[in-house]
């Protein structure tokens, strides 16, 4: 959860250095006013190094990053995109905003896209699959990538919660053709609002960079006001203020994940021996960012009781079970495009996902795990399970 927990002097120093150099808050140009300070550009380069890729593009949010990814792949009207039925609404919104049709797919015991159900959901008009690493646990990327390759559809990774995790030694976000990240205030790294894309292909990077900036190609041969362009676009640029904070936060990413991992492992230890507690599966050779500790119990009543018992002891839950309506497609009747893709009825479309989510509990993790009250968690879950 917690890049915000470690915001401090380093972020402030980064911001101050912009103003010391002249205070240019725009990522491009004004070269004679900024004393060589380009925070967004530096942040992109540092992020690309961290993810071991050649190209990264900073944008204003992860929702924007998803929209830009779809634009770069020329996905829009007449196309469909498969996403998991358990994700944040943003994943579906980006597809709708692109003019394409979202189709939702069941999740498996990893709480991420189910490769078996994916086979069934891909249609002739499907152009891409967006896999999501919910709450930091990697999806079964090898199997999902194989299904995508078999159908000739592109794989995009919504890595909003997976920044810093990996699968088979490869950073999350770099398995797919394009990966997207979120730096909103609740994510592993934060710039207040912000996002990033990483690319496998240089051509995708150039298409995305232009589209997120009104079509600007930032052609070095001409000044920006005479810049070349091949398509229209939009404005999803990141500002220098966000780039500065991102540079400081990126240096703290490993420490944040280490702290969350310690807390996660402590929570697992606290409840693992309680009968009826089934911890979420992390696929073999997957490394989670441990944004939350997720487990399921025997039924929805026990899950709700877990939350009540935790609240009574001064602890709490995250997303599950309380915020499921923002994260489960079975409740998204406010998205007519999605409902139409599922013959008008979403409620009964994802029984596997609904069944799993209804009897699951997510506990937030924090960087400072030393302060965690594991006894309260143990006692709460035990009391809930015993009824
Ligand atoms: C947070 C989140 C987003 C949206 O990120 P923003 O930066 O807030 O736009 C997208 N997808 C998932 C899975 C998320 O959790």
Task: Provide an overview of this structure.
With 387 residues, the protein is α/β, with parallel strands linked by helices. Helix content is 37%, strand content 14%. The protein contains 12 helices and 13 strands. The protein has helices at 9-20, 39-51, 62-72, 89-97, 115-121, 141-151, 202-211, 240-271, 300-312, 336-341, 351-358, 374-386, and strands spanning 55-59, 80-84, 101-105, 126-132, 154-158, 166-167, 170-171, 178-182, 195-199, 278-279, 286-287, 292-296, 360-364. A 7-stranded mixed beta sheet has the order 1-9-8-5-4-2-3, sandwiched between helices. Strands 7-6-11 form a 3-stranded antiparallel beta sheet, with no helix packed on it. β4, α6 (141-151) and β5 form a beta-alpha-beta unit. The chain is globular. Bound molecules: pyridoxal-5'-phosphate (PLP). Residues 61-63, 87-88, 90-91, 132, 158, 160-161, 182, 184, 195 line the site of pyridoxal-5'-phosphate (PLP).
Average of pLDDT: 96
Strand order of the largest sheet: 1-9-8-5-4-2-3
Task: Compute the number of strand runs.
Answer: 13
- Unreliable runs, pLDDT <50, ≥5 residues? none
The major β-sheet equals: 7 strands, mixed
What small-molecule ligands were found?
pyridoxal-5'-phosphate
What's the multimeric state? single chain
Q: Give the overall shape, derived from the CA principal axes.
A: globular
In whole angstroms, how far apart are the ends?
Answer: 30 Å
Helix vs. strand class: alpha/beta
Order of helices and strands: HHEHEHEHEHEEEEEHHEEEHHHEH
Strand content: 5-15%
Integer-rounded radius of gyration = 21 Å
Helix content: 25-40%
Count of helical regions: 12
């Amino acid at each position: 959860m917690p890049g915000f927990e470690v915001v401090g002097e380093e972020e402030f120093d980064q911001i101050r250095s912009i103003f010391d150099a002249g205070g240019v808050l725009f990522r491009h140009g004004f070269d004679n006013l900024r004393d060589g300070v380009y925070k967004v550009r530096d942040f992109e380069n540092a992020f690309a190094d961290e993810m071991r890729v050649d190209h990264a593009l900073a944008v204003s949010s992860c929702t924007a990053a998803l929209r830009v990814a779809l634009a770069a792949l020329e996905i829009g009207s007449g196309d469909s995109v498969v996403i998991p039925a358990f994700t944040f609404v943003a994943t579906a919104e980006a597809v709708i905003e692109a003019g394409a049709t979202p189709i939702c797919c069941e999740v498996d015991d990893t709480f991420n896209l189910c490769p078996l159900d994916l086979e069934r959901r891909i249609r002739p008009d499907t152009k891409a699959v967006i896999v999501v690493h919910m709450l930091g646990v990697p999806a079964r990327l090898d199997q999902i990538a194989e299904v995508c390759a078999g159908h000739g559809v592109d794989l995009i990774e919504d890595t909003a919660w997976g920044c810093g995790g990996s699968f088979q030694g490869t950073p999350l976000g770099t398995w797919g053709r394009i990966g997207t990240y979120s730096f909103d205030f609740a994510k592993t790294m934060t710039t207040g609002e912000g996002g990033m894309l990483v690319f496998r292909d240089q051509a995708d990077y150039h298409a995305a960079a232009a589209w997120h900036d009104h079509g600007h190609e930032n052609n070095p041969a001409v000044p920006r006001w005479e810049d070349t362009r091949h398509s229209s676009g939009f404005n999803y640029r990141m500002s220098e203020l966000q780039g500065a904070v991102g540079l400081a936060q990126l240096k703290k990413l490993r420490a944040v994940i280490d702290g969350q991992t310690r807390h996660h492992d402590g929570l697992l230890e606290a409840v693992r021996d309680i009968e009826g507690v089934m911890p979420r599966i992390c696929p073999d050779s997957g490394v989670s960012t441990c944004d939350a500790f997720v487990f399921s119990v025997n039924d929805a009543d026990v899950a709700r009781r877990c939350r009540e018992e935790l609240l009574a002891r001064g602890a709490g839950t995250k997303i599950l079970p309380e915020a499921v309506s923002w994260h489960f497609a079975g409740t998204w009747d406010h998205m007519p495009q999605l409902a139409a893709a599922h013959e008008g009825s979403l409620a009964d479309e994802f029984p596997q996902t609904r069944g799993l989510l209804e009897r699951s509990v997510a506990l937030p993790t924090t960087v400072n795990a030393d302060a965690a009250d594991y006894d309260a968690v143990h006692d709460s879950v035990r009391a809930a399970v015993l009824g």
